[in-house]
Amino acid sequence: MRVLTKDIAHLCRDRPGESLVVFGWVHRIRELGGITFVILRDRSGILQLVLAEATDLDRSCLTLESVVKVTGVPALNEKAPGGVELSVHTLECIARAAPDLPYQVNADIGKIGLEAILDHRTLSLRNPKIQAIFKVQATIIEAFSEYLRGQNFTEIKTSKLVGRSTEGGAELFEVAYFDKKVYLAQSPQIYKQIMVASGLERVFEVAPAYRAEKHDTPRHLNEYISLDVELAFIESEKDLIDLEKGILAHIFSEVARKNAPELALWHTQVPHAEAVHQAPIVPYEEALKIANTEATFGGKKQAARIFDINPEAERLLCDWALREKGTDLVFVNEFPRRYRPFYTYPLDTARTMSFDALFRGLEITTGGRRQHDYKALLEVLPKFGLKEEDIAGYQVFQYGCPPHGGFAVGCERLTQKILGLSNVKEASLFPRDRKRIEP
Amino acid sequence: MRVLTKDIAHLCRDRPGESLVVFGWVHRIRELGGITFVILRDRSGILQLVLAEATDLDRSCLTLESVVKVTGVPALNEKAPGGVELSVHTLECIARAAPDLPYQVNADIGKIGLEAILDHRTLSLRNPKIQAIFKVQATIIEAFSEYLRGQNFTEIKTSKLVGRSTEGGAELFEVAYFDKKVYLAQSPQIYKQIMVASGLERVFEVAPAYRAEKHDTPRHLNEYISLDVELAFIESEKDLIDLEKGILAHIFSEVARKNAPELALWHTQVPHAEAVHQAPIVPYEEALKIANTEATFGGKKQAARIFDINPEAERLLCDWALREKGTDLVFVNEFPRRYRPFYTYPLDTARTMSFDALFRGLEITTGGRRQHDYKALLEVLPKFGLKEEDIAGYQVFQYGCPPHGGFAVGCERLTQKILGLSNVKEASLFPRDRKRIEP
Q: pTM for this one?
C-alpha cells in the first residue's frame, strides 16, 4: 500500500519501525561519506531517502527525474526536510529518466529567466515552487465557485465562438468555422446577461477568454481564465463590490487554509478578511488626485502627470491604500463614460456605475452595473460606433430584463499577485503570447 | 426584504398573515371570474399571484415576461402550484416586456421543434423545463469536480490554442493567431499527460473542446464541455473504470439530492449507486457478439450485421445490460488497436487497454491507459502516419513518466441521457453547429 510523502512523519511516530512503500520522482541526489541521499518528490511533497553504501540496490534508476518505487523504514531526523527520512531497503525502477536532462528541474527558479522557464515548460512545471503556483490557482477556482454556489449562483458554460465582438475593439482572433468566419470570445458578457435575464438571476462561469492584443507586457496574456459573475436586482456597482469582497475574502481564507506550504515557498501571505472588507472605494476623479499626490509622496519627484488610471496609477493607489488604510485592495468606481463599454449603466451624463478592483498594484477586476433598458441601450450605440444589428443578442432585453450587473476576475492576475510573481505568464500553465503556441 | 418563491409555503405556515415581497417574471396570466391569476417565475420556482378585480393596481406591467416587484399576503391553496398563492397588495413594474413576444416562453416544449427552440434561444432558455437542463448540468460539473478533489486530484486549466493536432484526424478549426495558424484543441490530452508526468499525478479539467466534424447528428456538437481526468500509477483501464464508476455514482446521487424538481419536470430518475457499481465490463469482441445477438432478440429481424461499436451497437448493448444486468451503464474495453489513438497502451499486439462507457444507449466516455514509454511511443507512430516532430510535447516522457491513463466524459451527453433529451444540442446553452453561431 503506497504512502504519500506528506504522511511519513506521523506514520513514523505512530508505527515506528514499520516498513513503508513510497512512489515518486528522483528530485535530487547527493553522495556523502559513502551514503547516497536522494530527495524524492511526489504530489504531496518531498522526502529524504537514505541509501547505505552496503545495500545491494539496483542504482541504474538514480538519474534525476526517474520515477521509482521504494520500500524502507522511516526515522525521525531533524535535519531532513519535513523532519523525517527513509532508510531504503528496496528500490524499483518505474520509469528511468534519460541522463541528459535539458533543464534543471530542481534549480532555484529565482536564478532562471522567464524565457528559459517557458521554453522548457514541460520540465519547469515539475519544479515544486512552480507547481505551487497551480496548486494555489486550483484553490482560487474552487473557492470562487464554492462561494458563489453558496450564494445561490448557477454555474454556466457558454460558447467561446462568437459571430462578432460585443466588447468593442478589433482585438479578436478569427476562426475559420466551416464556410464562415467567427471569433474567439473576449468575454462571456452577452451570455451572462442573457442568462440573468432568463430568470436564472445569478450566474457564474470559469472559462478561457481571448484578447488578440499585440503588446507583450508582464500583465497581459492572449488567452486567460476569466472568473465571471453576473446577477440581477442590484442597485449600483456598490452591490457588486460587496459581492467581490465576499468572494476575495473567501478565496484568501481558503488559500491560507489549504496552501500554507505553497505560500511558504513563495514567502508570502494572503490578506486577512478584515483587510478585504475595509478596502476603500474611491471615485475615479478622486483616485486620479490620490495617484498624483502619491507620486510625489516622501519628497519623490513625479515623472509625469497622471491623466487616467494607468498601470502606474494602479501601483500608486495600492501604495496609498496600504499605507493609509492598511489594505492590499482598492476599488475605483464611477469611471467616465468614454472608458467603459456601451452596455455600462450611467450614473450621470459623464460617469458610469462601474468599478475596477486593484490588488497589490494591479487591476484584477473590471465590472459594473449594466444598462437593462433596451431603448436606452440603443440610444448610446452611435457614440460607440455600433448599430442595432451589432448587438443582436441584446434584443431579448425588450422582453423583461431586470437591473443587473457583474464583473470578471482575471484568474492568472489574482494568482500572480497572491504569490508575488513578476509576470502574469508565470501563472498560466501553457501561456500564449505572440510567439508562444507550444507546447 | 425579498423572499424567493420556493420559501413562500413554509413562511405562510410559520408566520401566517405576514406581508411578503417577491420579485420575478410574469410567466402566465389568466382571467377567471373577474380575478386575475398570474404565475410568477423567479430563479427558485413559480408562485401563483391573485389580483382581485377591486384592487387599485397598475396593470400595465401585466404582459408576459415583464419583471415585477409584488407585495402581498400568502395563503395556502391546494390547487395552486406548490400549494400556496399570494394575494397581491402592491405591484411595481421593474421592466415591462413588449407585448409582441416572438416566442411563447411558457409553452409546452414538447410541442415545439428543436429548430424553433434554438432559433429563439435567448427566450427559450426562460422556459422552466429548458432551464432545468442547465441546473442539472451545473450539478454535474460541481459533483464531478468535488468527487475528484476528494480523491486528491488538482484542477488544471490548459490552453485551447494548439500548434497541431494530437488526436490525429483533420477535424480541426483553424485560428488566425497573429501571423501564425493554430488550431482549437480537440482535447487537453497532451496537457493532462504532461501534468501527470510533472508529479502532480492526478489532474482534472472542465473546459470546452472542439471538433470540426461536418455531420449534424443528435449526438454531435462542434463545441462541447469535456470533463477530463488523468492519473498516474494505474495498471490497466480497469482502474479507470473503477474511478469513473465512483464519479458517476457521486454525480447521480448529487443530482438526485439537489435536482428533484428538475428530474420531475423531465419525468426521469438517475440510476442508483448500486446499478452504477454493477455495470458490466465487456471486452470489445464479446460486445460485438452481444450486439448482434441483441439485434435479433425477441424474434426481431436484424437490419444489418454489426462490425464495430457504432451508435446502433451502443443502443443494443445498453438494452442488453438493462435487461440482463439491471443497469443503465456498460463499459466496453480492449478496443482493437486500429480504433484507438497512437498514445493508447497495448494489451497485446491486437488489443489496447482502452474503454468506452455507454450510458442509456450512448457513448459518454472514451479513455484508456496511455503509453508512458517514449521509445514505445515512437515505434507506433508510423502506423498512424505521424512523425516524432508531430508529438513534440511527448518528448518529456523521456525524463520520467509513470504508468498512467485517463478519460473524458462528454458533459452535454451525460446531461442529455440523465434527462432523456432527444438531441445533445438541447444540453448546450448556446450550441454550435455548421450553421449556428449566434447568439
A: 0.98
